[in-house]
Design a protein that fits this description.
This protein is mainly α. It has a single domain, classed as 434 Repressor (Amino-terminal Domain) (Orthogonal Bundle). 63% of the residues lie in helices and 0% in strands. It is built from six helices and no strands. Helix 2 packs across helix 3 and helix 4 crosses helix 5. It is elongated.
């Protein structure tokens, strides 16, 4: 799965059902800016969906919950790489290999 699977899944489902982010927000109780963020950035943007929000989106968009949850949760390796990238961005350093003296 690619990192934007959730975004694509939400966008296609909303388009297929001719729903706007505001219409989905009204049906789910999730705020409109959050729906827009999920549709644009998926689960890996600055706003992360909760499992309850994902289940509600699946119900509203008539999607299997397993498909929505699966698209939202990246692999452990991808999470680790993302965390390392954020850490490098915060510290302003580049990745370097650790040198050990034996």
């Amino acid at each position: 799965m690619t990192m934007d699977d959730l975004a694509q899944l939400i966008q296609k489902s909303m388009h297929r059902r001719r729903l706007t982010a505001q219409a989905v927000a009204e049906q789910t109780g999730i705020r409109t800016p959050r729906i827009k963020a999920f549709a644009e950035d998926g689960a890996n943007g600055p706003i992360h969906p909760t499992d309850d929000e994902l289940k509600e989106l699946a119900r509203t968009l008539s999607l299997p919950p397993s498909a929505v949850l699966g698209a939202a949760h990246p692999t452990v390796r991808a999470k680790a790489a993302s965390a390392a990238r954020r850490l490098r961005q915060r510290t302003g350093t580049r990745r370097t290999l650790a040198r050990r003296s034996y």
